[in-house]
């Protein structure tokens, strides 16, 4: 093994290296210290200038080295980086090879629940020993696992740091940045399931890392939001993700009213089994109030044994189904509320022509006017403003603006598809 990788977590060689003279280390290797001054300034306040200077020296000693291995692993190992790693949302086989190697080689794993993430790491170690995360070649009657990543860390000890909604404070973030990343350690941020920060804690850590110039590396993978959208059967050219809605009913209704204003967008929500019926009833109330029917897809326990994906043509149908189930719902839910149907949005936009005819002889279809403006290169926003201003000029209120915007988005998409296929 390359002697550059002999200094691993907790070993004597590493501690000696960190305490060595900075100038001597600078002679031995290229310096990666673009964020050292920012780190020093960050810690100088209230921590003592000598601590900040010492930390800047340590950061200056961090260097980038290239991973050994085959051509498929031509990446740079950024010492002192923060890796945002997506983990399975139910099926352990969904983890990527890159995510597994990142976790196995991490010095520190920052997790919501350290016990849960610890079990995942143990599973990955067993899978790695079975040859899943390396090349397997046969030599005679035996098979040998040959690592692509010569720096892969299989030490039995890995430091876990808890970071959840209860302790995601600046002090905890400072500890991770100062005592882990600043010392050149590889830190992996994970959530209990799926992609971190998607309705999960950790935003403060990412924010501070960016402010200090710390490399933040995404390791993409499973995500309940994207998985649900891909199987929902709802048009999702545009969507809004709102995570979990407020617990109070008045706040929940207010949030839904704002979310469902744009007719052309899907709305994706996470919900617990204890409130899913209540949330669906609130969605039905708002949809009926707006008078624009929408479909909905309920995805339950995605990628797990009892996975269930149900698509309904209307919210009322979905509510009726959920209320007819015996006992309380179980599992984790993703709700995908579809957009208002195109013909519904077209009918709303056409009201401009019908209503305007009563006031002035305006014989221009609102949809056709929007199309003409967009074809001429006018933006969607400006086109909607023009048509809406025209309606207001003739004594019409701007209640049609959302419908016009949805129709304009459809028209723009149709024009782009026609141009892409060569249709004039």
TrEMBL record:
One Pfam family, please name it: TP_methylase
Q: Which domain of life is it from?
A: Eukaryota
In its keyword annotation, does this UniProt entry include rRNA processing? yes
Q: Which GO terms describe its molecular function?
A: methyltransferase activity
* An individual GO BP term: methylation
Q: Which UniProt keywords apply?
A: Cytoplasm, Methyltransferase, rRNA processing, S-adenosyl-L-methionine, Transferase
Residues of the Tetrapyrrole methylase domain: 82-311
Q: What is this protein called?
A: Ribosomal RNA small subunit methyltransferase I
